[in-house]
Amino acid sequence: xxxxxxxxxxxxxxxxxxxxxxxxxxxxxxxxxxxxxxxxxxxxxxxxxxxxxxxxxxxxxxxxxxxxxxxxxxxxxxxxxxxxxxxxxxxxxxxxxxxxxxxxxxxxxxxxxxxxxxxxxxxxxxxxxxxxxxxxxxxxxxxxxxxxxxxxxxxxxxxxxxxxxxxxxxxxxxxxxxxxxxxxxxxxxxxxxxxxxxxxxxxxxxxxxxxxxxxxxxxxxxxxxxxxxxxxxxxxxxxxxxxxxxxxxxxxxxxxx
Length: 257
Ligand code: PGA
What we know:
The chain is an alpha/beta fold and 257 residues long. It has one domain (8-254): Aldolase class I (TIM Barrel, Alpha-Beta Barrel), CATH 3.20.20. Helix content is 41%, strand content 14%. The protein has an eight-stranded parallel barrel with strand order 1-2-3-4-5-6-7-8, surrounded by five helices. It is globular and about 45 Å long. The relative contact order is 0.15. The model has no long low-confidence stretch (mean pLDDT 96). 2-phosphoglycolic acid is lined by residues 12, 173, 178-179, 217-220, 238-242.
């Protein structure tokens, strides 16, 4: 049975857009979604840290939107020059934090232990972590992809208590599909999402698994979103490139069943 509360579309703006452009894009998205009054959806907009406060204010009148961060520190506070804490993100109106995006795992060597700390700090602020997992092309080609994703979840996210876990969102993002124009086929996406949901069920029970939001990410766009989002275990998307174009992003939101 599908749980409609599971649905979410999140736009990861990555390191793009200066303040004015960020506010224009936000205004366009708010305006276009306003025309879709009856659509009961959850939308996360995830800009650079420096825009979170302004965008949170800008979007505050429409409860469908939550603004988020692309990362946070694994420390609470203190002498960590250049870091941004989960509590700071909360204090400027952030609602979501992406944890363990493959770009952070690859370029910033984030470890499972750090990702678990980040997730716990996010939850302690009552924000929603969007925890990313996904295999490299080499893992897919060597048919090792289930094991890789299982390890990514088991070695960090599944250390959470059940009460914490039920407030998290998982994003499956095959690394070979991110920014490449190669999308997982519906069969590949459904197979992995069902596998992840089964892992959650084995660890936390079937009820929790049934309520867990599992997003697909990796070259999801306005053309393929409808098919991907209609899969039984795909609850929406984590969108990169296509989230930077208001029309594409709105079409993706509208693709939620
Ligand atoms: P993409 O990025 O949609 O541009 O492939 C997705 C992501 O990195 O979250």
